[in-house]
């Protein structure tokens, strides 16, 4: 009996000395990286020679302008451009500088080449007063495009969720070429988004309440034909940055300006002060300056992961407007570096190589390379790391 008790006691003691099995710590599943690729362009203007060039079968076709850019527009998740004219049905004819009204076919062609959002707040938004605002908005929406900057009802800023990232879009102009009071005293003073600190704060507050991950701002500002941003542009950029805007895309000066990174306590805001003309009939031959023929295409990526949402890449690229006559008048916008390297074969490269090289040199002088983060070529690079 004693032996049996001793055996049980030994077994009990040994069981107490046995090492405890340690449960392996649970690994927290990492949030997959989500990404939105963005392409932004400057002022789409239409002067009389451009209208003549676009005439086709009793209507208008503006798609040839985008011939060399369509692949880049279509591969972006969000492609945007500033429409600096109004769109009408042509029943009263079309007009250009200083009061613009243009063919409604532009809306169809924007959609066909791959644009998603059209910025419409600029100093020419009210050129045809409320009728022009309403017809422009109508034709863009009818084509299936989102619109920011003008509206026919008092609605909040645009929100789009793309690839799991919720983006808010705000859009402003400094003014309306003297029509400001006419808009203010109309029955729809909200029809064009005019910049004011109060309006910006209200718009951003709304977007944050809706839980957006990032805010993008298109803004028409600065001084025409000025190569450097004004002090007011810089101050307004900081104002927007301090309120949480991630990406600021500027237009109006008709020439490209530099870029900036505005650092705040909450992060970093990327600024393109002026993307310049996307397309126009402004030429060096009669304006005595080269930069009116050039613009910028901004390619950027916004990512969302365990660390939050941020701009991962920001790359301004030079554009050149090629105007030529060969069996008719033509306007084509050329992505300069892609043409020079052969990534985008350009039919007239030998005719315009000198001007492309000149445009690229000017672009390199203007853009601080330390402020540029090149876009990753592969969308899944994050997952491979």
UniProtKB/TrEMBL annotation:
Signal peptide per UniProt: 1-18
InterPro entries documented for this protein: Capsule_synth_CapA, CW_Biosynth-Accessory, Metallo-depent_PP-like
SMART domains: PGA_cap (SM00854)
Cited SUPFAM superfamilies: Metallo-dependent phosphatases
Location of the Capsule synthesis protein CapA domain: 37-282
CDD domains, per the entry: MPP_CapA (cd07381)
One Pfam assignment: PGA_cap
Keyword terms: Signal
Keyword Signal annotated: yes
Family membership noted in the UniProt record: Belongs to the CapA family.
Name recorded for this polypeptide: Bacterial capsule synthesis protein
